[in-house]
């Protein structure tokens, strides 16, 4: 009976191994076939890792060698793709597959998986590895360590509200208490597990086995038999070889206690066959122990010798591992104590060093603080000096410009006033002369050589028209000089810049169409709807906008004349937007563009690229002066020759 009791204890330990996995126990071939078909299809690498783990789960209840093969494939792919969660899952699967053949290696794999789970705060994987490590300590008869790991896994399941995981943890704890012959505690946890599994409609084949063990130890043999038989039926429906082995061996043990050796031999053989199909060495050992005793009692002797030989082989394989593990565990605990003592000593030394470093660091911080404060004071002083210097240079530049323009104004004001009246008379007489020539040429019949006189009169008419043209240009020059000569500025008023832009774009376009009938261009407006009113001199700013829009329309018309094929579409774009401390206005075109040499001189007075008679060279110079001097802003230009030009006005955001 003592030998039988040892077999039962081993069987309980083995159940803890199997029940310790949170993987589902559904090992039916349709599910496995479905997973294999899915693995044959194209999948992302991360999905394929988890798929291999799922296939390993299915094989774990059928054949541990196949479960090992798929877990190794999952591990290799996870490490290749640096999929940390998948690596942790694969390590756990590989440990479960190796647990029967190599306890030490299995423990290393579970601990490595646990470290990954803790580093990445993966609570589910932590619980799974805590349970797996607990099973190994139960194998080693370390009650305190085994139950400690089980209860840690249970607490994580409760924290996650994962009731299916809690079913497994409760059943494991119940089987551990049964192993230590604490039947009442075993019954309490198995009944909790069974009630929760019934509510969740999850499998109960392992729990039924555990309840059968409790009933058998309490002497409730009929009830124990019913639990075992229900576990056998449910395990067969699930295709679960391991749980079938447990239930068969439990029922065989029950019949042996009753002296019904034929029934005991029958069910023990079924249990041995199920374990051999699965590669479950501990299951083979437990069934062989029962069969050896049964055949020794009943005969024949050769059958008893056969199973005793198998029993000894299994003991050498399994219990030899456990002895090695116990020695490793003792050495490991001794190393832990030594490491803890060394760590405590190092911590004490480090603490004193830390106190000294803190004092030194405090002194350094005070010194650094003083240096930083001094540096900041110097920086502020330097910044103030730089700002003052910049303001001084700006004021100096503006003063020089104003002096230049004042001198120019004084020089040109008198000339302009003197020239206005004569030029007005020249223009008037030129217009009257043109009208008289038209009357003479059209109404009077000449008695002399009419052809010669007409040519003379036509030449006279052309000369008079040239006088008128140059007179108009002189008037434009005088007007521009008068604008430059103006001193002071009008008061600024809050102005709707979008409306001002719209109005001057419309005026410029109308003037271009009046001057060149048939000319058309696409006008695009990108005006910020939330632009605030800005304090400006509206007439002056309007003059700038009108000049820029006129120049843009001139540029696109010039390119249109150069590209008469019709593929070119003239376009002018005006936009406005609010910046952090300013308002920006852009006037752009897709015209002929401006070369780099011209851009360098474009804001100089009297510089123009237009033909003689079409421009004075004062428009952009006056515009630059209005923006920079009159409004404290900036006028700049961006252009690429042959692609277009954009003038950019930046005005300080001064609202009224």
Could you list some keywords that capture this structure?
HisK_dim/P_sf, 21 helices, alpha+beta, 5-stranded mixed β-sheet, disordered N terminus, two-stranded antiparallel ribbon, phosphorelay sensor kinase activity
Can you walk me through this structure?
Pfam families: HATPase_c. GO terms for molecular function: ATP binding; phosphorelay sensor kinase activity. It comes from Hymenobacter cellulosilyticus. The chain crosses the membrane at residues 354-372. With 656 residues, the chain is an alpha+beta fold. The chain is built from 21 helices and seven strands. The strands form two sheets. It has a five-stranded mixed beta sheet, covered by helices on one side. Strands 1-3 form a two-stranded antiparallel sheet. Strand 6 (634-640) and strand 7 (644-652) form a beta hairpin. The longest helix is centred in the middle third of the chain and has 143 residues, at 301-443. The N and C termini lie far apart (105 Å). Mean pLDDT is 80; it is low at 1-28.
């Amino acid at each position: 009976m003592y030998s039988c009791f040892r077999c039962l204890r081993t069987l309980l330990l083995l159940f803890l191994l199997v029940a310790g996995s949170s993987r589902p126990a559904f090992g039916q071939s349709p599910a496995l076939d479905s997973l294999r078909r899915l693995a044959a299809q194209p999948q992302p690498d991360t999905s394929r890792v988890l798929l291999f783990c799922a296939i390993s789960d299915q094989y774990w209840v059928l054949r541990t060698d196949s479960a090992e093969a798929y877990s190794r494939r999952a591990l290799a792919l996870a490490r290749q793709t640096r999929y940390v969660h998948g690596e942790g899952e694969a390590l756990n699967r590989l440990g479960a597959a190796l647990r029967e053949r190599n306890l030490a290696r299995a423990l290393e794999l579970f601990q490595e998986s646990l470290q990954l789970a803790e580093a990445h705060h993966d609570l589910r994987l932590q619980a799974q590895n805590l349970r797996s490590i607990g099973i190994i300590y139960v194998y080693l008869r370390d009650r305190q360590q085994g139950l400690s790991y089980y209860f840690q896994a249970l607490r994580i399941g409760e924290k996650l509200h994962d009731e299916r995981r809690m079913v497994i943890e409760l059943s494991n704890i119940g089987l551990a208490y049964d192993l230590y012959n604490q039947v009442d505690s075993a019954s309490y946890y198995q009944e909790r597990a069974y009630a929760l599994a019934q509510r969740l409609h999850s499998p109960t084949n392992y729990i039924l086995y555990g309840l059968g063990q409790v009933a058998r130890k309490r002497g409730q043999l009929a009830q124990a038999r019913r639990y075992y038989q229900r576990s056998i039926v449910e395990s067969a429906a699930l295709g679960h070889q391991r749980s079938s082995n447990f239930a068969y061996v439990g029922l065989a043990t029950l019949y042996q206690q009753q002296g019904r050796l034929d029934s005991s031999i029958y069910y023990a053989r079924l249990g041995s066959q199920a374990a051999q199909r699965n590669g479950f060495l501990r299951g083979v050992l437990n069934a062989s122990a029962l069969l050896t005793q049964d055949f020794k009692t009943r005969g024949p002797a050769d059958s008893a010798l056969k199973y005793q030989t198998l029993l000894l082989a299994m003991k050498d394989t399994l219990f030899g591992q456990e002895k090695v593990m116990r020695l490793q565990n003792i050495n490991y605990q001794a190393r832990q104590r030594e490491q803890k003592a060394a760590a405590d000593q190092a911590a004490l030394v480090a603490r004193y060093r830390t106190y000294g470093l803190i004092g030194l660091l405090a002194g350094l911080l005070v010194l650094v603080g003083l240096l930083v404060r001094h540096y900041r004071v110097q920086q502020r002083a330097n910044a103030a000096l730089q700002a003052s210097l910049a303001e001084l240079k700006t004021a100096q530049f503006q003063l020089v410009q104003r002096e230049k323009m004042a001198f120019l104004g004084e020089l040109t004001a008198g000339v302009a006033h003197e020239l206005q009246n004569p030029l007005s008379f020249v223009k008037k007489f030129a217009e009257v002369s043109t009208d008289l020539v038209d009357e003479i040429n059209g109404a009077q019949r000449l008695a002399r050589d009419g052809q010669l006189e007409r040519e003379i009169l036509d030449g006279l008419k052309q000369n008079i028209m040239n006088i008128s043209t140059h007179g108009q240009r002189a008037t434009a020059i005088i007007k521009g000089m008068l604008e430059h000569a103006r001193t002071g500025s009008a008061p600024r008023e809050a102005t709707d810049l979008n409306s001002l832009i719209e109005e001057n774009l419309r005026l410029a376009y109308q003037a271009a169409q009046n001057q060149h009938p048939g000319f058309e261009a696409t006008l695009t407006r990108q005006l910020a709807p939330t632009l605030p009113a800005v304090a400006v001199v509206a007439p002056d700013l309007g003059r700038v906008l009108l000049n820029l829009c006129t120049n843009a329309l001139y540029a696109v018309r010039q390119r249109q004349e150069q590209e008469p094929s019709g593929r070119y579409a003239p376009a002018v774009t005006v936009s406005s937007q609010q910046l952090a401390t300013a308002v920006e206005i852009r006037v752009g075109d897709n015209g002929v563009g401006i070369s780099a040499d011209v851009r360098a001189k474009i804001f100089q007075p009297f510089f123009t690229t237009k033909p003689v008679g079409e421009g004075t060279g004062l428009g952009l110079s006056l515009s630059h002066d209005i923006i920079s001097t009159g409004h404290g802003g900036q006028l700049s230009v961006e252009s690429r020759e042959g692609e277009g030009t954009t003038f950019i006005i930046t005005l300080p955001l001064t609202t009224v």
